[in-house]
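User: I'm new to structure prediction. If I give you an amino acid sequence, what do you actually give back? Let's try with this one:
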Amino acid sequence: MPEPEQPEQEISIPPTAKAAETQAWRAFFGSLLKTDFPRATESILEFLAHHYGFKALVWLERSNGGFENRAAYGEMKGRKVRLGIAADDQRLIEAMQNEMPLEIGERHGADNTTRTMNLFPIGVAGEISAAVATLDNIGSDSGKKQIARMCQSIAPQLEILRLRSDVARRELIGGAVRRFSDGIKSVETDDLWLSLTQNAAGILQAERASLLVYDKTSESLDIKSIIGSRNEFDASEESGSRVAKVIFARNEPVIVSDISKTGLPPAAERGYRSASFLSCPVTIGGNVIAVMSFTDRAGGKPFDKESLELFQAIAPQLAVSIDRATLKEKAGEFEQLSVTDALTGLLNRRYIEERLMEEIKRSNRHGFPMSFMMLDVDEFKSYNDQFGHPAGDEALKMVGHIIRETLRGADVAARYGGEEFAILLPQTISEEALAIAGRIRANIEETVFPHRRVTLSIGVASCSAELCLAENIVSAADKALYHAKHNGRNRVQAFEDMAPVQAN
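Assistant: Good question. You get back a string of structure tokens that encode the predicted 3D arrangement of the chain. For your 504 residues, that looks like this:
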């Protein structure tokens, strides 16, 4: 817990009966809904400081079962607060119910004196979502109760702002994923490395970026693309020796707001315009296959958690694209064929099953949406029997081509077996998956095949709390596919829309 720079001073709390104070509170509460969530938290700290004379305030947001700094005022700015208390600790819940702060004491200094932090929980319906903490000494219980009541009275407004912020964040991420997918679609392998780097940098608003891919043969990171560099890279310097090697070894991203505070040696020769950077591993199948780094964020802003969240949103697309390109570039035709269906040119069942497991892990870890679909050519046996197997093979080739042309750059399509296909759709909610499935179905139906009309039945399942296991989501999509065939064929069926008796 941070130590205050000034001696503790008792704060005098104005009485609630004052009309001017009541009016100020009402005006402040009314203004909260006119701003966004981050600004609202800062405004609350400023209001408390202005009206009650606080000099050390921090806003703590619930995160991973505990609390994390999100905003600070006065002497708390730039300091980290680490509380050894869970967000659902019974003492916090009781403090909220009793309209009093939780007082956390700690002995410190050479004289072993005790300092106290007053922690005011904030929540709705008994669930704590945040807390305001101060190291200032509040003299009276009535003053503490007044602040506690204020924190509770603003909780509903904050929850509305939080929900708005979540919706805006999802829209931002969804838009970024779509832009990235569109940007890398139909890019030739020779231009892929540069395209991946440019598109990722654009999403993160970084003027400079690099992509380093791991080479298993040399056991080193190879530079595939650098954009925005003002100087040529020193060939005598080992690739990624300053940062990327560490990120690769640890398999953890790092956000640095000021490189001068990290102990890293300066790199003045590279001409960076800002002191902040973001470096992230790219993984597939649990293994790190590349490292991307970003510097010089537009407007001089430091990279932050939102930047990392944007990168993690496009990471599945990056991983699949890098994996495919590496297979073509390094493994040769034989290895490429080992994950490709010879007839349709799509990926094979082995490959998509591996990618599905990786994507489900990512979805569980970060809460990203994901969808999966199973597709089957209707009455294909009779097509083979009537026109022969060569004609059937030609029909499957056409189906594979139409599927590939309909999908986005990040989607993974595979021939699952026989006349059955599977598609993995990273970062895709159920509604979007159904729209894509509908386009595939319509495109197949409208295509003129050599001998007779060909149609598809499609089953769609999306990741949820109940379905976030590979075997479950495949089974769900398969059940939805069976339902589509049983109810007339040439249709799309969502697993979520099936009657409970059929879903069991």
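You can read the tokens as a compact description of the fold. Here is one thing that stands out. Residues 383 and 452 are 8 Å apart (CA to CA).
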